[in-house]
Amino acid sequence: MLRSLVAVCCLWGFSTAWAQTPPPVEWQRNLGGSVDELGTSIEPTNDGGYILCGTTFSNNGDVSGNHGNGDIWVVKLSTTGSLQWQRCLGGSQPENGIKALQLSGGGYLVLGSTRSDDGDVIGNHGALDFWLTRLDNNGNLLSQRCYGGSLNDSPADINQTPDGGFIVVGASRSVDGALNTNAGSTDYWVLKLDDNFDIQWQRTFGGSGGETAFGVTLTLDAGYLVNGTSSTRDGDVSGAFGLEDYWVLKLDTQGNVQWQRACGGSASDYGVAVSELSDGSIFAMGFSDSENEDVSAPLGLNDIWTIRLSSGGQVIGDQTYGGSNLDSGSDQFQTSDGGFIYCGSTKSNDGDIPNNQGLFDGWIFRTDAEGNILWNVTKGGSQSDSFLKITGTNDGGYIAIGQSSSSDGDLIGNHGGGDVWIVKFAVDPVGVSENGQPTALSLYPNPCAGTLYISLPILQGFPVSWQVIDAQGKLAAAGTLVGSTNEVDASALKPGAYNFLLRAGTRQLAMPFVKEETSGW
């Protein structure tokens, strides 16, 4: 079989002479007012624009309608970054924006935290609650719900589930309200909601120390992966190494633990994101200042650290990226060639860092499937600038969001303090055929509504795995092709842009396609 796969790779004619130039910047935008803003999420929308979420303390400039003490700020941008509408959500106490999602049925879902019980907020349980709001297509508030107990409960991530509901993660200190257990200090808190925001199930996980969940992703077996940080050596946590470890949980569809893994060394390791690959293995990322145990090749004071686990949670390998100073990772998504795009911030000016213009620069880099850096780029000015999230766009480029305090270097138009900072990158030159010739792979119809037909005559009966990756780099479907012509049911995919990938060995072949709206959606 290995010889057959090699033959297929040769027939596909993959080029090993990849371009190493980062994609150019198409546009960038500073948004905010005279005080401070922070951008925490950005997602493409069906109209080619973007929905972003963050926090604002201003009530001037681009911001209007602030309720006081910090509001969740939701902004809709056009394809070219023009502001179409903005909405402040909150009450008289502080709120923080976490993530905004466009819903398949229209409108937007916004996750944040709240201490208020007035203004837009109804039903706060105590000090700090998870807060979900639903907006219409123009940003008007339709409904809202608070989740928590009498102590601090802080959200971190949310994703829509195939049944139209949502999976939400964060940290909790409470033992009342919606919660009935706490192992000590803060625990992971995982909630499964239906499409009306009602709790279907909720679970807490942890030990006598502190645990904070930062990222959740859906798995192909209808379960969930959760990544975050743990400072515990008891309770639900086993195999811990140091002060703080990555703590990865694999849950089944009902939230039961199938396995857990603490990853790290004797110092502090902070897990922030997690992804499942088509073979069932897992990539977890964050940042680390450990120099032993799972961390095999430390570079400086603090590095971006990735670790690959088997489908059962065993360590396969790890990789560190950075320089001699402070480097931190905040987000990742998988690219069509099996590699990853990472973003974060850096204070280094050596090692993997091409240059640094100030205190901290935003840092983005791309790796191949083996973890080798294909290109990397820093952006910033003389002050502190960072990227917090990055995702793919419908045109094949990337868009990153974070915060900028600079008004020089790569930055223009700072409104005061820290601004929400958005950078749109053009189509990535890495992976584009040097001679521009099409491959033998064909997909039709494109756009498709239901069945997608895949034709690749050179397969000649060799089984080759496939996967569908959405515009945010997330795995949407996977399977195996056998024979030169195959059918794939795409009816369950949400409308939008996707990449169809064929994998043989370590090589991949990709072709974009569009899933169009169908009647009844």
Give a quick set of tags describing it:
single chain, 521 residues, mainly beta, Immunoglobulin-like, 4-stranded antiparallel sheet, 1 helix, 35 strands, 2% helix, 48% strand, disordered N terminus
In words, what does this structure look like?
This protein has 521 residues and is mainly beta. The protein has a domain of 88 residues: Immunoglobulin-like (Sandwich). It has 1 helix and 35 strands. It has a 4-stranded antiparallel beta sheet with strand order 1-28-27-26, with no helix packed on it. A 4-stranded antiparallel beta sheet has the order 2-3-4-5, with no helix packed on it. A 4-stranded antiparallel beta sheet has the order 6-7-8-9, with no helix packed on it. It is globular. 50% of the residues are buried. The N terminus is likely disordered.
Please give a quick description of this structure:
This protein is mostly beta strands and 521 residues long.
Write the layout of secondary structure elements.
Layout: H1 2-12, E1 25-31, E2 37-44, E3 50-56, E4 71-77, E5 83-89, E6 95-102, E7 108-114, E8 129-135, E9 141-147, E10 153-160, E11 166-172, E12 187-193, E13 199-205, E14 211-218, E15 224-230, E16 245-251, E17 257-263, E18 269-276, E19 282-288, E20 303-309, E21 315-321, E22 327-334, E23 340-346, E24 361-367, E25 373-379, E26 385-392, E27 398-404, E28 419-425, E29 442-444, E30 451-455, E31 464-470, E32 475-481, E33 485-489, E34 496-504, E35 507-515
Antiparallel strand pairs: 1-28, 2-3, 3-4, 4-5, 6-7, 7-8, 8-9, 10-11, 11-12, 12-13, 14-15, 15-16, 16-17, 18-19, 19-20, 20-21, 22-23, 23-24, 24-25, 26-27, 27-28, 29-30, 30-33, 31-32, 31-34, 34-35
